[in-house]
Amino acid sequence: MSNSLEGRRILVVEDDPHVFDLVQTALETAGLVVFGATDGEEGLRRHRAIGPDLVVLDVNLPDMSGFDVLKHLREGSNVPVVMLTVQNRDEDRVRGLELGADDYIGKPFNHRELVGRVRAVLRRTEAVPPLPSNRTVALAEGLSVDFDRRRVIARGEPVRLRPTEFKLLAQLMSQPGRLQTHETLLSRVWGPEYRDDIQLLRLYVTYLRKKLESDPAHPRYILNERGLGYRFCEPGPDGVSPPV
Fold it and tell me: Which residues pair with 152 in a beta bridge?
């Protein structure tokens, strides 16, 4: 079986030589091509020059925080980003995800975990679940989703979705009106190793609601079934989603 990671370019932004060596060894052993940067400014320059397939980004850098680097990246790029954080720092994880990171890994880590996370992020940012037979879906209130071009229009304006956000939307829309459990959504969008990470799913649902809904606090498209999961519903002519 061929190596699905062979030749992928990974930019590692990490100022600790020991940690960089560990990351480089793990990724190169898996067939990836690794480029390095020791601070945020260099990381941004190398990103522009290389155009990597994924960035591994440390939170603690000497010139600026990894969060600031991530903000700059997200101003013009959807490149997948895996954050390196101190173990058990949930606040770092949540902040990184809110700023647009695709995943995180806590220090210390083992080689298998790192490669597994990188593989999972690459897989989910490239793959899209089975889409509706009508490749462009136009809904009430000006929401239109073009699955071929991965373009979304909401309230008459184009909406920029990150790859994982689009994949989650596509998964929800693949079974309109049907409840999809937390475990199902996490497994199909992020991978089976994420099936228990309900907080991650809730965070991404919040992102989608803010971008798609006229009133995110009272959603009409992405509805919650408390303790179970979510379903996607098209509002009726009066703008009200049908009852469960």
Answer: 145, 159
The 8-class DSSP code of residue 217 comes to T
Angle between helix 90-99 and 66-74 (nearest 10): 20
Q: State whether the Cα torsion 144-150-151-154 is positive or negative.
A: positive
Domains along the chain with CATH numbers: 9-126 (3.40.50.2300), 161-232 (1.10.10.10)
Pairing of strands 103-107, 81-86: parallel
Q: Tokens 């949540």 correspond to what residue?
A: 94
Compute the distance between CA of residue 108 and CA of residue 201 in angstroms, rounded to an integer: 25
1 pLDDT above the threshold of 50: no
Q: What is the per-residue pLDDT across 87-132, written as a single tens digit (0 to 9) for each?
A: 656 777 778 877 888 888 888 888 998 999 899 888 877 765 555 5
Cβ neighbours of 173 (radius 10 Å): 19
d(Cα 17, Cα 235) in Å, to the nearest integer?
54
Instruction: Report the C-alpha gap between 213 and 241 in whole angstroms.
Output: 12
Length of the chain: 244
